[in-house]
Specification:
The chain has 93 residues and is mainly α. 23% of the residues are buried.
Length: 93
Amino acid sequence: MLKVFRATAIFEGISYLLLFGLTMPLKYWAGLLEPNKVVGYAHGALFIIYVVVALVFCWERKWTIKRFIILFLASLLPFGTFYADKKYLSKLA
C-alpha cells in the first residue's frame, strides 16, 4: 500500500503543477482550452484517488486524524504532496 500511496502522491503533485504551471497559462494567454480540460480531468481523478488512498493508508497504519488532515492539506498546496512524501512516506520505505 505504501508504494501505491507514494506513486499516487507524486502523480497528483505533477498533475497539479502541470495544471497551474502549464495548461492554465495556455488557456488564458494562448486561448488553448483542450490541454486544460484534459489535465484538469486527470488532476481531478488523481486528487480523488489520493484522498481515498490517504484515508485507507491512515486507517491501516492507525495514524491519527491529524496526520490525515496534514496529508489532505498537502494535496491542496503546490509541491505539498512532494513534501508529504519526503516528510512522512519516504521514512516508511
